[in-house]
Amino acid sequence: xxxxxxxxxxxxxxxxxxxxxxxxxxxxxxxxxxxxxxxxxxxxxxxxxxxxxxxxxxxxxxxxxxxxxxxxxxxxxxxxxxxxxxxxxxxxxxxxxxxxxxxxxxxxxxxxxxxxxxxxxxxxxxxxxxxxxxxxxxxxxxxxxxxxxxxxxxxxxxxxxxxxxxxxxxxxxxxxxxxxxxxxxxxxxxxxxxxxxxxx
Length: 200
Hints:
Layout: H1 3-8, H2 21-24, E1 26-28, E2 44-47, H3 50-66, H4 76-89, E3 99-109, H5 119-126, E4 131-162, E5 167-199
Parallel strand pairs: 2-4
Antiparallel strand pairs: 1-3, 3-5, 4-5
């Protein structure tokens, strides 16, 4: 799928798995060679205003919808125009021809996300990007399942083996214990999008 089509779908879907949220939601740009960067390479992580990014995505979607040709057949000049529009929305001040769009991640989550905790930069290096520019916005409440502790006290039945009598016996012991039970809670949900870029 082309980057233009992917950006138009930024609000859709939550992807699962055990990888980081950045990796689970990642869509590479077709035709881009992703060569990992060295660990010493600094990755710029910064935020862009959601309203700017959202407006650019709407305009890009309209360009695609109004075109009589699929994105893949667009002339290079028109593709560069679309890229320049997105880069302006991301407040990239470099000339558009000097910046390559590697891909993007998008997802919605009720988890607390910290873009500067190192995981985003690490993933950016893995895919050959030296910049990751993100935007987010609150989208409302969503249900999530959490494990909550329930503390109990009382007498519990204990079965043990009595070696002298060579048989199992039962006794009741007073004790306290904790059981974790699943509970559905309402939590704030946030939509995220991050674009991965590299200097040519």
